[in-house]
Amino acid sequence: MKKHIPNLITLCNLMCGVAAVIIVISGGASYSAAAILIFCGAVFDFFDGFAARLLKAASPIGKELDSFADLITFGFAPAAMLSAVIQHILFGVTFFEYSSTTSLVWQEYVLIITPFIIVPFSALRLAKFNIDERQHHTFIGLPTPACALFFASLVFYPELSPLLLAFLSVLFSFLLVAEIPMFSLKFKTFAWHENKVRYVFLSVSFVALCVFQLAALPAIIGVYIATSVILYFVEKKKGK
User: Fold this and answer.
1) How far apart are CA 137 and CA 70, in angstroms?
2) Cα–Cα distance measured from residue 182 to residue 229, given in angstroms and rounded to the nearest whole number
3) pLDDT tens digit sequence for 131-144
4) Does the domain formed by 2-182 have CATH 2.10.109.10?
């Protein structure tokens, strides 16, 4: 029975993503509900790997199932939510609520469709992760959960420009597949010297979440990306 526990947790992640998409498309609830489901999916995504290691129940099917779940929860769900938010900002409506008199110019079509670029780039990111032997203890490119959490947390900033949201979609899609090492939050040991970046980052993130709650996530993800890029160039310079 215990060998199935990690996969059941992964399926909970998947169902969070499916529910988030349904909420966004139906327009029957606030986008914050979809965002919270994406946050819950991230929690399940963390614990399925943790459970697999703890129970020694890792399996090839679990690895593939995890990628499928991540593509929905951290790829399609945030893209759909971001597109719906852009539509709401532009027209005050959600998916499938256009009247027959609604007329869109091509620039508006581009803004609405652009967030879905996150989906194929997330798929490529997940496929690369599954076959890349370099990513056992670090990441190459932005992890899909970090990308999804960034966009899900933007619902707490309703005054953002649709043009900025579309630009961020393109930027983060590039970061998903960029050949830039991103530090992992997994601990091999608890020694300070080997984990000082992780300890500092987690401490700052914890304080920010306590003070600003989920609205702090965009800044936290931004700091994570900036720190990873800085460390990458520092290590690159040392290697010369």
Assistant:
1) 19
2) 7
3) 877 766 678 889 99
4) no
